[in-house]
Design a protein that fits this description.
This protein is α/β, with parallel strands linked by helices. It is 46% helix and 13% strand. The protein contains 18 helices and nine strands. Helix 10 packs across helix 11.
C-alpha cells in the first residue's frame, strides 16, 4: 500500500516538474542532411542528399531511406564519424559567470537578474573558462566556440599521485551553474574538473533560442551533428588536459550528458573513470517515450514517424550499438571504472530503458557499480534526492581515481609461470 502511494506521489511530483515550463516549441520534422555534409562527402552520399534537400516532400520514403543509410554508415565506421583534428586555439579566459537560464519562470529570471547585478558590482569572483573552436562546425559561431569552466585542483592535493582530471557534462537545458558544486567537490579530492557546456547551451546558445532546443529536436541531422560535436568536444578537453600534464581522466554525464560521455569513452581509451547519471540504451526511445521531449514526439508523429523508425534514425548515436566498442577501449593495463545511476520513478528516461543498459552491461562482461535513486528524473535535482545523487557520484569518483592512482604507482605484477610450465615450454 505504502509503495503504491509513494509511487503515485512521485509520479505526480515528476509530472509537475516536467510540465511547468511553457516555452517548449513544436518544431516540424526536418531531415537536416545539410548538417552532416563533411561526413556525407566522406561516404559518398552528398549528391543524393543535395537532390533530396532540394525537392523532398516529408511524406516521401526517400529521405527516410537516406537517413537510415547514413546511420548505417556511422555504425560501420564510427571512428570516422567521431574523428577530429585537435584544436590549435586552446586558451583560458576570465569572466564573471552568468546563469544563462533556459526557462522563463519568474523565480529563475529573478535569480538571473540578481547574479548579473552582483557580477556588475564585483560581488561574484571571476572564473576561468577553457575556450576553443569545436572541430564540428555549425552555422552558429557562438555554438562553435566551446566553453568549459575550469576547476583546477590545489597542487598540494595532487602531490604524490598522478595528475587526475574529469570532464563534467550536465543535463539537457542545464543552466551554467548546474553541476558546479560537483566540480568543487572533486577539487577537494585533488581532482581537477572541466565543466563542459553542451552544444547550444548557456553561452553557446544562439540568441534566437530561449531553450537549448537545437541539441535535440525534430531535425534529425542537426541532432546527429550536435551529438558528434559534443563527443569531439569532450575528447578535445582531454587533449588539453593531457597537454597540461594530466595523466588519468574521467567523465561524468547526466541524462543527455551521459549519452555524450558514454560515446566519447567508447571512442577514447584515455577515459578510464565513467559516471553515467541517468542512462538509456537508445537515443530515439527516450525522446519518443520521455515526458520532457513530448513536444518533439508531437512533431515526429505529425510527420508519420513511429518509435521504431526513430530508434533507427538515431541509431548511430545510440549507446546500445557501442557496448562492445566501449569494452574494447579498456586498456590492457587498466579496466574502465563505471558507475550507472538510474531512478525508479523516471518519466524522462523510463525505467525499462535504464534496465536494458544494466542487462547489456552484464551481458558484455562490464564491471560496473549500480545505484538506484528512489525518485524520478527531474526530482533528482530536488531535496533530498540531489544529495543522495551527489553522494553516489562523489564517492564513486573519489574511489575510482584513488584506485587508479594506486594501480599507476604500484602496477599489477606480471604473471609468473610455474616451474613445470616453464620446463614444458
Amino acid at each position: 500500500m505504502f509503495k503504491d502511494l509513494y509511487a503515485r506521489w512521485m509520479y505526480s511530483w515528476e509530472t509537475r516538474l516536467t510540465t511547468r515550463d511553457e516555452n517548449r516549441i513544436v518544431r516540424p520534422l526536418e531531415w537536416g542532411f545539410d548538417w552532416l555534409q563533411p561526413f556525407l562527402r566522406e561516404v559518398g552520399l552528398t549528391g543524393r542528399a543535395e537532390r533530396l534537400s532540394a525537392d523532398l516532400s516529408l511524406d516521401s520514403h526517400s529521405g527516410m531511406d537516406l537517413m537510415l543509410e547514413i546511420n548505417q554508415a556511422i555504425l560501420a565506421d564510427s571512428d570516422r564519424f567521431f574523428r577530429y583534428d585537435s584544436p590549435t586555439d586552446f586558451r583560458l579566459e576570465e569572466r564573471h559567470p552568468h546563469l544563462f537560464p533556459t526557462n522563463v519562470r519568474p523565480e529563475t529570471l529573478e535569480r538571473d537578474s540578481r547574479i548579473k547585478q552582483m557580477a556588475a558590482e564585483g560581488k561574484i569572483p571571476r572564473a576561468q573558462f577553457l575556450r576553443f573552436t569545436s572541430p564540428e562546425r555549425t552555422p552558429y559561431p557562438e555554438n562553435d566556440l566551446v566553453n568549459a569552466r575550469w576547476y583546477p585542483a590545489d597542487p598540494a592535493k595532487q602531490a604524490g599521485k598522478p595528475k587526475q582530471a574529469i570532464v563534467v557534462m550536465p543535463q539537457w537545458n542545464a543552466d551554467a551553474f548546474s553541476h558546479n558544486a560537483l566540480c568543487s567537490l572533486f577539487n577537494r579530492f585533488g581532482i581537477s574538473a572541466l565543466r563542459l557546456s553542451k552544444p547550444y547551451h548557456d553561452i553557446r546558445r544562439p540568441s534566437e533560442l530561449e531553450r537549448s532546443d537545437y541539441a535535440v529536436s525534430a531535425n534529425i541531422g542537426r541532432t546527429l551533428s550536435a551529438t558528434r560535436q559534443a563527443v569531439v568536444d569532450i575528447r578535445c578537453c582531454v587533449d588539453w588536459l593531457e597537454a597540461q600534464g594530466y595523466e588519468q581522466f574521467g567523465v561524468l554525464g547526466t541524462s543527455l550528458g551521459s549519452c555524450y560521455t558514454f560515446l566519447a569513452s567508447a571512442h577514447d581509451k584515455r577515459i578510464q573513470v565513467n559516471a553515467f547519471n541517468h542512462a538509456s540504451a537508445a537515443f530515439g526511445d527516450v525522446v519518443w517515450a520521455g515526458q520532457s521531449t513530448r513536444h518533439i514526439r508531437q512533431a515526429l508523429e505529425q510527420a508519420g514517424l513511429t518509435q521504431g523508425q526513430l530508434r533507427e534514425l538515431w541509431g548511430g548515436v545510440s549507446p546500445f550499438h557501442y557496448y562492445e566498442k566501449f569494452t574494447a577501449q579498456q586498456s590492457t593495463e587498466f579496466a574502465k571504472k563505471v558507475l550507472l545511476i538510474y531512478a525508479n520513478y523516471d518519466l524522462t528516461f523510463p525505467l525499462e530503458y535504464s534496465l536494458e543498459v544494466v542487462k547489456s552491461f552484464r551481458e558484455h562482461g562490464l564491471d560496473f557499480e549500480r545505484r538506484v535513486l528512489p525518485c524520478g528524473h527531474y526530482t533528482t535535482g530536488e531535496t533530498p534526492f540531489q544529495y543522495i545523487d551527489g553522494w553516489y557520484l562523489g564517492s564513486f569518483v573519489y574511489r575510482a581515481f584513488r584506485d587508479l592512482a594506486k594501480e599507476k604507482i604500484w602496477p599489477k605484477p606480471t604473471a609468473v609461470l610455474p616451474d613445470h610450465e616453464l620446463i614444458a615450454q
